[in-house]
Amino acid sequence: MYSQGLIGADSSSEETPEFLAEFQKRIDREEKIEPNDPMPSGYRKTLVRQIGQHAHSEIVGMLPEGNWITRAPTLRRKIALLAKVQDEGGHGLYLYSAAETLGVSRKQMTEELLSGKAKYSSIFNYPTPTWADMGAIGWLVDGAAIMNQIPLCRCSYGPYARAMVRVCKEESFHQRQGYEIMISLAHGSPEQKEMAQDALNRWWWPSIMMFGPHDSDSTNSDQSMAWKIKRFSNDELRQKFIDATIPQAEYLGLTVPDPDLKWNPEKNDGKGGYDFGAIDWDEFWTVVKGGGKMNVDRITARQKAWDDGEWVRDAALAHAKKQTAKKASATLAAE
Amino acid sequence: MGNDVLFETLLRLADNHLILGHRLSEWCGHAPMLEEDLAMPNIALDLIGQSRALYAYAAEIENQGRSEDDLAFLRLEKDYHNILMVERPNGDFGHTMLRQFLFSSFMVLFWERAQNSTDKVLSGIAGKAFKESQYHVRHTAEWIIRLGDGTEESHKRMTAATAALAPYIGELFEADAVDQSAISAGIIPRASDLRGAWETQVRSVYAEATLEPILDHQAQTGGRIGQHTEDMGFLLAQLQYVQRTYPNMTW
Ligand SMILES: [Fe+2]
Ligand SMILES: [Fe+2]
Ligand SMILES: [Fe+2]
């Protein structure tokens, strides 16, 4: 899954103009920045924040779909869903590792998630009341994630870019798997079709919001674009996603819940594209700020896993220390 | 031996693997660390995958038009014939690891010998399952050792898990008339023949974990004939939810 447009990054740097200009030249030459390279503090802070948010999104994103693992309707679906949710955990792991190359620890990031200091994609604060949500999330949420993440495969920061290459392959598999669930529902019984339409109704707008605020309201975008952390603006990516997704909805025979949706042949430099209705940004900010249906439950679940697991982590550490001590004394005795 | 013995044998094996895989999958997203959020689903995927192969074959043997999913999702509680150990609630992470260790240590030996089954399909399933369960034993044994040896608290918790699971060990080695027929026909190994090797393995891991094993506890039994603990109904309520709520649909 993915993080939405970055929220609340501080990209200010204290370095000399010469240093910043030199760094910018490397970026402009499309050189990859590696962990030990000199980099502006703002670049580092932006990446820590963005990769952290992305990692947290993968981890919190396990919960809404995890909600259906024990209730998946067939063995095939159960296996596929479990494997998908497991993949998201794997994405979290690559991303925490990428963030660690910038000098933050996983523990520190986890604590920031639990305290509310670090954000995660607010799409995961919506509930998954029906099986069709497993289809809609794969199709739309993983679909939007791919739009966002494919350009990140060319991100200027090497470890993040490389993590994204692995992640994107799996995300497109998730997207197809979700869409395939939608096909079987949309072509199924009237109840199943209704379930599919209901899921589309609930996930459409939150998915559109995943790309973040409009470019005109997006404060950090310019610097991120200059540093080639970001390659396309929020609105460009959103438009691409809508244009790619509408034909898929049509194939399903489902109705996208936007009465203002209309083909516009002038759009995208005359290639055509869809006009769409106004996005309810009040809802977006309400959910980002903690007012979504599941915000509290998501963090409570993560907190519980963290607290319940403490004795396990402590024991693993204690055992490892004892082993090291044993080895050391064995070596000593042998000398 | 009739097909009903083979069918029942496959069903019991399939139920053990589905129910334990289901239990393990409950952890997904809630593990003590991210690495275990990957490792537990790995094991659960193997178990559910094995159950799927077994149900598919059972459905074919039964030849009554039932599918793998009909068998997995649409039976009454009393018709699930898994041993009780696998339906026990997860408890804490240590309890879950110990349950898996005890079960997988048995299954490694079982699958190893079942590779020579007179039933060619089952011997094929055994080949893959043998390799998979070796990993399950390795992974869980490491945890038993870490947690038994780790801290005072972890040791205490593992001691409690040992006691809690002790009554469910005996059932692993039982054989009723159905099992006897399957054993005589060379379809499956005799479980009681595996007990010595199983105990050796388990004792060595317990010793390294500084834990006191309880292996001779009075056994709770009945799973094979559908006499379950109270937790089973709730497990099935989730497992069967969609299939029961929306009957006769394709998913
Ligand atoms: Fe995904
Ligand atoms: Fe992901
Ligand atoms: Fe992602």
From TrEMBL, chain A:
Pfam families hit by this protein: PaaA_PaaC
PANTHER family recorded: 1,2-PHENYLACETYL-COA EPOXIDASE, SUBUNIT A, PHENYLACETIC ACID DEGRADATION PROTEIN PAA
Name this protein carries in UniProt: Phenylacetic acid degradation protein
Organism: Amylibacter marinus
Source organism phylogeny: Bacteria, Pseudomonadati, Pseudomonadota, Alphaproteobacteria, Rhodobacterales
TrEMBL record, chain B:
Pfam families to which the protein is assigned, alphabetical: PaaA_PaaC (PF05138)
Coiled coil (UniProt feature): none
Domain of life: Bacteria
Protein name: Phenylacetic acid degradation protein
Name of encoding gene: paaC
